[in-house]
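Now read this:
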Amino acid sequence: MRALIVDRSVPGGLRVGEVPEPVPAPGEALVRVTATSLNYGEVKHGIEGAEEGTVLGWDAAGVVVEAAADGSGPAVGTPVVTLGEGGGWAELRAVRTGWIGVAPEHADPGAISTVPVAAGTALHALHRIGPTLGRRILVTGATGGVGRYAVQLARLGGAHVIASTGDPAKHGEALRALGAHEVVAGPALADGGLDGVLDMVGGPQLVEAFDRLGAGGTLVAVGHSTGEGESFPFGAMFSGPGRDDRSIVTFMLLFRPGLDRDLTWLAQRVADGTLSPEITWRGGWDEASEAVDALLGRRLHGKAVLDLA
């Protein structure tokens, strides 16, 4: 079967090649992939660290062509969205049924393929904060794939949403259209007393964002795009009036329970227009290097989609 395989001798580190078809385990379904979305983390670190010839890819949408032998998961012919540790950049993918969401029949596979990592991460990060109705929530790195879904989901959940971006003049209008009530140029410019922060950036911005939390507030460390560590000044962890019981939490999406249910719900919301997939680049197999270059150069705000059919 055809697949995008790691080959660091070519631009972008990927080329179309032939690989053996996957053999699903009893709890896995075989899915014919029609679209996949690219994520900065897999492009940046996956291509750098993988063995030559590896098939990467976390996100993929398609149709079940072989149901799981153990009877779990969707039947043959079901349109689905899938999440996995790799294998999404290929014509066929074997994937655990617990990592499969059912997509509506009429859904655009390209739009649905943006759901697993970006929307799934945003949803579970908001779950870690707790109830969002009436809460003040800051989203840093709000123009990225996860950030844009986080803004929409937080607003959908009834939060007062503050979006942080390095260029509010350029991105402010778009972020407000997605649901942001305020757009700021950095966490330090957000009013204090926040109930929650979804931080996509890490480094100094995470430190600044933690300082804006109010009592009982939670910062969910989602992304680390700066590549920098976090150095907290003396006193940053002190408690006191308005600063008591603050926390920093992390999670791994693949370890979260109920992913099949959540992927199904998110796919439905994208298909019915409640959530925008924010696709800002779309192309075919042979154009993958263009998308990789745009992602690594931070010129792509939103999601990049490859149509494989």
Remarks:
- The longest helix spans residues 115-129.
- The mean pLDDT is 94.
- The helical segments are 40-49, 109-112, 115-129, 145-156, 168-178, 204-211, 259-271, 288-296.
- The CA atoms of residues 210 and 219 lie 6 Å apart.
